[in-house]
Amino acid sequence: MRNILLVLKKELYRVFSDKKLIISLFILPAVLMFGLYGLIGMLERNMSEDIETHVPVTYIVNATDGLKAAAAAAGFAQNASIDYLSEEAFLTMEGRLTEDLREGFADLIVVLDADFEDVFSAYQGQGDKIPGIQILFNSAENYSQQAYAVFSGVLETYRMMLLQERLGNLEQIVVFEQKDTEIVKEAKANSRFIATMFPYMIMIMLFSGAMSISVDAFAGEKERGTLASMLIAPVKRTDIAAGKVIALAIIAALSSVVYAVSMILAMTMMGNAMGGEGGFGGVSFSAGQILELGLMLIVVDYLFVAVIAVLSSVSKDVKSASTLVTPVYMVVLACALMTMFSGGAKNSLTRYAIPLYGNALALQDICTGELSAAGFLVSFGVTALLAAALTALLARIFDSDKLMFNA
Amino acid sequence: MISVQNLSKVYKLSAKKMKELKTSEGRKIAVSGVSFEARPGEIYGLLGPNGAGKTTTLRCIATLLKPTEGSVSVNGFDTVGEGEKVRGAIAFLTNEINLDPHFTPSYLFHFFGQLHGMTEEEIARRREELFTIFDIGGFADKKISELSTGMKQKAAIAVTLVHDPQVVIFDEPTSGLDILTARTVLDYLRELRDKGKTVVVSTHIMSEAEKLCDRIGILIGGKKVAEGTLQELLAETGTDDLEDAFFRLYKEYGEA
């Protein structure tokens, strides 16, 4: 145990005495997260404001007095630049206006049938002609999309006005009232967003954090010949393996905590900037959930470092280690991604026993408060056993002259 | 005391390595049937050209490689079954093992002292002694990455010797060193010999071996072809100096 602690202390000292490593592992990620999400929030807000304040360039052909009144009632007419065109005028300009719409110079063209009011008035019943309104908009342009959405409200107002005119009393068309009552588990509802995002984000961050330091700590040290200086000390190889892996797991965990906290704060900041969409508001975890989360993250983090350590130690150099580790990163990514698209069915214990995928599932279920004690024990136990086996394997690798010295 | 008995080390070659070496044989014999003893109070030199098996032999003594055949023991401890005890008794220095560039000589000296189970007082005393001999004080607190080759070598020697081992094994001890540092190292090896330590060095510098070693084993093609004091080797080969003796032996065994 003493030697494990000595090796562990050395590895921690190596990182915490190096300003460059501290900046790249702990400070830069936080700065980047805040910078990135802050920038996204600012740009998103600017974009929304720009769209909202934009004066839509609109052409209405054969506009009826009723439609004009509806546009005014819905507040559209006051905030838009509207050209009312006759059928003849429109026919001469149709090509240019359509081109303007395509190029983003115009936002909306509304064409009512030339005999709209006559047809409406002449309607007697089933089989009679119904007047038409054609709307042209550009779905690739934000301004046009916004104009279309707002004008749909105008048309709804106009529709109600015409129905009132035709039927006199709108109550005739109301056949039932719909009342929606939401029954939800509040904790689950609040944590839905975080439960979807968290396993994916944290697994990726943990693995990339572990990868950034562990490949060099094993393959790099082997390549530089510095690992051998430890191997000629009178220390058990398992002590060296465990000391290094635990130290790197601690560093990777701290780095990912910085990532996670920065991400949560930055996303909340971004959510607020965007008007409260998404984010982590309303989420609260019980002490039990926090404990489960902490233990699961520790064991997953240790597993990641152990996997990378084994692959790096059997590699000749950093380059070939990176080649070996990258496919594992892809597997971690896929496992984490799969939890984002899981259905509502309860997970079986067997699923929790699948390394990586089971961990991602367990993390998700901890967030929603749905992980059973058995599920936690299975996922935690299998991961811990696998991590311990990999540490033992690492010690065997350290003992192999073929793998350590290419003999 | 080091005892090497009938040591053989055979490397299996990968297909890539076979292609590199332009050979169809799937294995390479690095050392074959080598036996010798290095005793307390003597400097034993392993002399041979590149690829003769010197480094492989020393690595087997230092427990970094396992013999394919034969056995090696240090102070009575078997290098395979009692590796930890062997590592506790030796200092092993080779150019292929380097100090971690992220640390200072001071930190590494203290760290390896702790790994050898030394007390703070013992480490401080050894530090004072070795840092003075090798003139390390001026750069003791600089990172290894910032040091010159000579400084690194001095730091590596001091760190390797932190635990005052009974057996000292140096592979090419003066390689890459300037003349002054090389002299300091060689003088210190003599001092260790005079204190009753077992010292084994490998070298291909004949003059160094002549002046330094009490007994010399000559390796050619992975085999020990001659062994003895300088006088015994000269008498055996009928030559006047070690270089001529070596070439005589190389002509006889190396071109076979």
Query: Which structural class matches the secondary elements of chain B?
Result: alpha/beta
Name the shape of chain B in a single word. Answer: globular
Largest interface, with counts of residues having CB < 8 Å to the other chain, equals: A-B, 25 and 31 residues
Could you tell me the mean pLDDT of chain B? 89
Shape of chain A: elongated
Q: Separation of termini of chain B?
A: 33 Å
How many strand units of chain B?
A: 10
CATH superfamily of chain B: P-loop containing nucleotide triphosphate hydrolases
Derived from helix and strand composition plus strand pairing, the structural class of chain A reads mainly alpha
How many separate structural domains of chain A? Answer: 2
State the strand order across the main sheet of chain A: 2-1-3-4
Q: Low-confidence stretches of chain A at least 5 residues in length (pLDDT < 50)?
A: none
Number of domains of chain B: 1
How is the secondary structure organized here?
The complex is a heterodimer of chains A (407) and B (256).
Chain A: H1 2-16, H2 19-53, E1 57-61, H3 65-73, H4 76-79, E2 81-85, H5 87-103, E3 108-112, H6 116-122, E4 133-136, H7 142-167, H8 186-224, H9 227-231, H10 237-273, H11 287-313, H12 318-340, H13 349-352, H14 357-368, H15 373-399, H16 401-405
Parallel strand pairs in A: 1-2, 1-3
Antiparallel strand pairs in A: 3-4
Helix pairs in contact in A: 1-10, 2-10, 3-7, 8-10, 8-11, 8-12, 8-14, 10-11, 10-15, 11-12, 11-14, 11-15, 12-14
Chain B: E1 2-12, H1 15-20, E2 27-38, E3 42-47, H2 54-61, E4 69-74, E5 77-78, H3 83-89, E6 90-93, H4 105-115, H5 120-133, H6 149-160, E7 167-171, H7 179-194, E8 198-203, H8 206-212, E9 215-220, E10 223-228, H9 230-237, H10 242-254
Parallel strand pairs in B: 3-8, 3-9, 6-7, 7-8
Antiparallel strand pairs in B: 1-2, 1-4, 4-5, 9-10
Helix pairs in contact in B: 4-5, 4-6, 9-10
